[in-house]
Amino acid sequence: MSERDGSGSAQQAGNHHRRSTDNLLEQLQEAQSRFFRDFMDNATPAQNADMVGMYQTLMQQLMQNPEQLVQQQARYTQAQFQLWLNWVSQQAGQESKPFIEPDGSDRRFAAPEWSTYPVFDYLKQSYLLAARFTSDVVSQSALDDETKKRMTFYTKQFVDAWSPSNFFATNPEALKAAIDSNGETLSNGLRNFLRDLEQGRISMTDESRFEVGRNLAITPGAVVFKNDLFELIQYTPTTETVNERPLLIVPPCINKYYILDLQPENSFVKYSVDQGNTVFLISWRNVPPELGKATWDDYIEDGVCKALDAVQKITGAKQMNALGFCIGGALLSCTLAVEKARKKDRVASMTLLTTMLEYTDVGEIGIYLDEKFVSSKEAELKGGKVMDGRELATTFASLRANDLIWFFVVNNYLKGKTPDAFDLLYWNSDSTNLPGCMYAWYLRNTYWEDNLVKPGKVEICGTKLDLGQINLPTYILATREDHIVPWHTAYGSLRHLSGDMTFVLAASGHIAGVINPVSKNKRNYWIGGPQEGAAHDWLAGAESRPGSWWSNWAEWLKGRAGKQIPAPAVLGDKAHPPIEAAPGSYVRVRIV
Prior knowledge:
Layout: H1 3-42, H2 48-64, H3 66-91, H4 113-116, H5 118-139, H6 145-161, H7 172-180, H8 184-199, E1 221-226, E2 230-235, E3 241-243, E4 247-250, H9 268-274, E5 279-284, H10 296-315, E6 320-325, H11 327-341, E7 347-353, H12 371-381, E8 386-387, H13 389-398, H14 401-414, H15 423-428, E9 434-435, H16 436-448, E10 459-460, E11 463-464, E12 474-479, H17 487-491, E13 501-506, E14 524-527, H18 535-541, E15 543-546, H19 550-558, E16 564-566, E17 580-581
Parallel strand pairs: 4-5, 4-6, 6-7, 7-12, 12-13
Antiparallel strand pairs: 1-2, 1-17, 2-5, 3-16, 8-9, 10-11, 13-14, 14-15
Helix pairs in contact: 1-8, 3-5, 5-6, 8-14, 10-11, 10-16, 12-16
């Protein structure tokens, strides 16, 4: 073969490689465009008309005060011009400090490529200026407080979506990775996108690394009762003696229960068993279409009440302790109010973890809620249609879009990476469907009308609901950075319950603040503030303690758990023999 032939072959190979890379890039860009279209069309479809109306109102308000808008635009133009001058000076070899820098918690621009490459440094700062200007236009407008709050949220959604970090052509990290890998990251990103498109959700973790029953939800136990709504799991004791009063855990039905039983080192269930408790737990069903007409009353009567019956019959205990997490806490509280109305007294204490009973301030999720939205959901679901868990998951993820949506878009698709293995994010992606009738009732009577704390306002299972009749020792845990259950709203539960109450505030958020094992000795919690005043008064007078709240709760529960008795030799009883080993069948059913 001649040298010329060899050169021609190399050139042909190079041309072929470039065509392949160009083709991959075109496919990835088309996939990215498709993702953006789907995100903008489907992220909050019920709010589209509302958003348009609010932006029209904003424009009308701005036109009534054009001087303010002109001043804002002039300041923005001047800032952009100064940024341009700084950039030109840098190209001439002069040093200059960044004109604007991202917030310290903003990890979108943390990589050195955003600062070492002048073009992308300029692009980053120009975007940050535009984002600040857009935010200022809304915050300095004369809109009423509620409209301004909603406008601020929607504006941030759009501003975050159009960050240069979210696009391949304007993300220096993605470009560098593609060059360094000879286009391999492009093909990986396209493959990741097509996989996620097929499964209908963004991959947040390497799901091949986890399996329920293999390395998640593996605390030994057995299903000892089962009906259409739930399976009841009894866990195998690990101590020779146990507390006389068993513990029933009511997890949220919006998610799978195993957030409380991830892996042995961070399992709240295992910790509770190791503390000498006979632990029972409700594993809610990922409801099929035929259960779409199940109601809130059904979740009380055929759910929590049936679990109480089974626990009492299996253990023979006159009383038990009960714990509810998030919406599980609301279900438990409603159940105990019904029990009081029925003159039953089989629960000795109640624990509420990140639970709202009053809904005066529901946090950022309230942005999505108004009468129009609630009514539309009622109309959509009243026939018994199942509420798709993926819609709920997307809604909650949108509250932290940069962390729970765009980070994974960039990482998975633009950089072609496989997400890290993280058990909590695996659980977060394992959504559950809810009965439409139950969800519609819950939406109106809690988030919209705040009826649970209005004595006699709603009837549940044939009784007028009055949470004030729950006269029990109650341990209430909130988390300081919770964006789903704001801690000061959880604090409001003190006003609506009776009995001796202990309020504890843990560091971190809705999940990380709850799942904080004692063995890791991380974070801190606050306890002991005055309960007579407002939430901020309580915090001002509270004591900060290092480590996990788990140990404090365990000590609190021990004082209400009765005497020590021999641990049960078998699980269940003759009327409730073990059906199958934990974690059971219901928790394994995933949304397809």
